[in-house]
Amino acid sequence: MIKTVIFDFDGLIFDTETYELESYQSIYKKYNVEFPLQRWYESIGTNFVFDPYEELLKNDAKLAKEEICKERTAIFDKAILEKTPRDGVIQYFEQAKELGLKIALASSSTSKWIYRFIELLNLEKFFDLILTADDVSEVKPNPELYVKVLDHFDIQPNEAVVFEDSPNGSLAAIRAKIPCVVVPNATTQNLDFDHQVAMKINSMRDIELSELLRKLDKS
Known about the structure:
By secondary structure, the chain is of the alpha/beta class. It is built from nine helices and six strands; from the N terminus they run βαααααβαβαβαββα.
């Protein structure tokens, strides 16, 4: 029986991933440099394994990273103004509460980043536990974040379900032996996910949480 639902944040609750990608592509386009898209895809859901400004700075020695970073951040900040969580997210939170389930957030991002958006979107009231990169030695695809959630609530892997949007995140859930439901966003929808994911849906709006849990129980 499911006792806890665990959510990733970036790209799953709020689509920061798509807004960030668009901001980088915009700044690269301005300086006529091709953005390293494949390397970006490989970093989704984990720590960046490359500097996303690297190619831009290599192509123009006159550019200062600090100024480019400010310019890119301004584009991102403008893009997220008045944006809301992804479709169905709030309904899942509310349904989880109605079902008496604990709600956890487990993110590879820093707590500073996560709490910025949690407060912006007024989501604090929903979470019984929030874990970020600051709480572990290794982020996803390492399963440490998810194992810590299990330990906190003193539950077994089959008593939880994870919601993820990225291959790295879903792999972390699989390694923690927790059933994982993948809900890709516009940026991750064409990426390859491990065959061991329990379910893949287009949007949380498409299926009630209680029905999804019943389907998982039967699978």
